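Subject: for your reference before the review

Hello V.,

The reviewers asked for a structural picture of the protein, and I figured it would be easier to keep everything in one thread rather than splitting it across files. Below is the amino acid sequence we used in the manuscript, unchanged from the supplementary table.
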Amino acid sequence: MSNTTAAADITFRYATRDDLPAIVALLADDEKGKTREEFTDPLPDAYYAAFDGMESQSTDALPNKYLLAVQGSDIVGCLQLTLIAGLSRRGQLRAQIEGVRVGSSARGQKIGEKLIIESISISKSLGAALLQFTTDKTRKDAHRFYERLGFVASHEGMKMQIS
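And here is what came back from the structure prediction:
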């Protein structure tokens, strides 16, 4: 993981359990996140259980971690990065990103771009051949952002809420 990116003085690191309030605040600081997340003090136990579950699945070779963009002492962006071993595509390792967020007060500083580039760099260094994610169909600005970074809308994603 690179230490700094000069343009916005951003550093990257993986989250610890102590970072959960800041991560959930970022997840809730979003039009859709406001309806999906529960940012209260204290945080619901479900967030801690989910973080612990991610940590228990994570290894050095196949991480399942939250990558944080930090500016000074503030967590200004995050995403979940999971590397997945699989048989398709001749056993290629793939990376999955989820929960990409940049705080509303930090938007427009290319922090999201730097966060995605860092996740690509980490994924490549671990041997991933493909990076994939889903994005809500209504997030047109996000679609333009990802396309500008070289992503292609090559598949139709589908989800089913089962609980």
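For the response letter, the relevant points are probably these. The beta strands are 10-14, 64-71, 74-84, 94-102, 130-132. Helices lie at 20-28, 33-36, 45-57, 88-91, 111-125, 140-148.

Happy to draft the paragraph if you're swamped.

O.
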